[in-house]
Amino acid sequence: MEVIAIGEMLAEIMRPKVDMPLYQPSEFIGPFPSGAPTIFADQVVRLRHSAAIVGAVGNDDFGKCILERLQSDGVTTRYVKVVDELATGVAFVAYFSDGSRRFIFHFGNSAAGCLPDSEGVDLSGTEFIHICGCTLSAGGRMQQECYKLVERASSVGVKISFDPNLRPELLSDANAVRRICEPVLRTAYVVSTGRYEAFAITGADDEDEACNKLLGMGIQVVAMKLGERGCRIYSQSSVIEAPPFKVDVVDPTGAGDCFDAAIVVGLIEGMPLEDLARLANACGALATTRLGPMEGAFWREDVERFLREGVAP
Fold first, then answer.
1. Which partner for 287 in 189, 193, 255, 292 could form a disulfide, CB atoms 3.0-4.6 Å apart?
2. pTM above the 0.85 mark?
């Protein structure tokens, strides 16, 4: 596989409209396949590159939902462990008119944390391993298998992609953030990050300062996600800024993961930074136009049409 992602595989159950709190009895829709590394792997494949996911699901209908979607799109699932003793991890989510989201995770005591031994992952021909901060923050086996895979991949020349997409409650503890991220940051080739994660990692309070500190660690490319402002790509030799695409936002979950996937695909293809940034912004924008965290991962042909015409499929 060109790209391998490792981490949580979840089913997502969501409120169908905004301003429907999770504590009130009302309707839900789903299940939708979810989990940051899972969404990432699916978008890589839909951009016409090969990808595998290392993870675990329960031997239940939610696990079946996730596996059938990934397999139908062409994501390799040979490294997915099916667990009989625990249920598939679940995330419940509600959206609000101020742009905020509220999650309830049934994650800790679920199959999601039962990752297979990453020593069994074949790295032949692999160009990138993708790691997510939310996976690292789960601790336990999930964290340790990520660290093990990063160390082994780095030792054989496989590049590391990292998104420190940590939960807001963890970002308040900067020391914990740095401790969790350090084993990945010291070998990462590309970091795709939001502003506040970058500030937490580096101790900076300015976007340029934070990204330059990351470059100073030896990271070759930093992709700063700026939301409605688009993105900024920093390399060891240049900085470019790309404007956003205007779309009607339906569901923002998964947009950052689709952005990450496009960054990695662009690097594999040797794209100029300007083209890479436009591809990533396009994938991130399109991801928000469909209800469901993975439903906005579009195929390459649709993304390229959007880049030409500016009209979402």
1. 255
2. yes
